Inverse folding.
């Protein structure tokens, strides 16, 4: 019996923080790729410490819904899940290449396939591009458009920037968009100056965040000049310094994220049949068109 456990941060302050996690779990649950699908959170219920006790499967695939490798994926999650004998060296990662490790959860004595975070998987590049398609309402968007991938940026975790640069490079290699730039909130180059980095009139801006919250709904729109007061809202596209900014919000809210979760589990050995094809088709047909 195969079980999937999607683990995420959650929030005591933002009730919408866990919404993408539940949405993607529902998508995967609906297509029957696993015998059961559970969710667990650091800051919400069910807690990381208890979630494995609710699982019935003898083969458990744990996928962290996090953007980068670091403190949570390397220390907090393994500790809270009681993954016996875990050591980050089992991933043998350069900060982008964590795949999976097979270990035992000591309190339930069952096999756990602990996967790397979704944010560093190559399939996340496709989700970023899909986000651009969704916000513009154009499945062929690219010609004449710039693309900005936005991350938090922090000196405390150098891997945070690695994930942003990785996906920006992959999008650049597609040769689909006129210009591609990685930007950050807390380090150079900063998203505040987004229009300085593009010659194209149209710029799609996609934050590489799992859920919409304080940063994506308040800080980034105000920093880019979309609005002086986020509570009053802003246009999509918004006109800033002679450019049209198509602000997409957190990439993690895109339906295609379910595909990346499945990819992580499949890479770890899960048998998922044609689930990937079904998710790709379902999420494309379900995406609402936005913008003009």
């Amino acid at each position: 019996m195969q079980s999937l456990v999607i683990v995420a941060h959650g929030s005591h302050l933002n009730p919408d923080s866990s919404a993408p996690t539940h949405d993607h779990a529902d998508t995967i649950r609906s297509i029957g790729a696993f015998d059961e699908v559970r969710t667990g959170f650091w800051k919400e219920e069910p807690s990381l410490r208890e979630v494995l006790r609710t699982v019935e499967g003898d083969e458990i695939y744990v996928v962290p819904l996090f953007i980068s490798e670091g403190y949570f994926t390397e220390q907090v999650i393994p500790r809270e899940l009681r993954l016996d004998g875990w050591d980050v060296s089992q991933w043998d990662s350069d900060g982008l290449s964590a795949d999976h490790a097979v270990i035992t959860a000591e309190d339930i004595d069952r096999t756990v396939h602990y996967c790397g975070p979704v944010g560093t998987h190559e399939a996340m590049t496709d989700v970023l591009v899909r986000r651009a398609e969704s916000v513009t309402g154009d499945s062929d968007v690219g010609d004449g458009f710039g693309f900005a991938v936005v991350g938090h940026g922090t000196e405390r975790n150098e891997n945070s920037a690695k994930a942003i640069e990785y996906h920006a490079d992959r999008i650049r290699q597609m040769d689909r968009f006129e210009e591609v730039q990685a930007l950050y909130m807390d380090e150079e180059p900063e998203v505040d100056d987004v229009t300085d980095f593009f010659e194209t009139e149209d710029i799609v801006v996609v934050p590489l965040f799992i859920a919409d919250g304080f940063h994506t709904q308040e800080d980034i729109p105000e920093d880019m000049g979309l609005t002086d007061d986020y509570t009053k809202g802003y246009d999509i596209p918004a006109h800033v310094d002679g450019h049209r900014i198509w602000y997409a919000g957190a990439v993690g809210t895109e339906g295609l994220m379910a595909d990346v979760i499945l990819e992580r589990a499949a890479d770890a050995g899960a048998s998922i049949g044609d689930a990937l094809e079904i998710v790709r088709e379902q999420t494309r047909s379900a995406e609402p068109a936005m913008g003009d």
The longest strand covers residues 2-8. Residues 8 and 21 are 7 Å apart (CA to CA). The chain is about 30% helix and 20% strand.
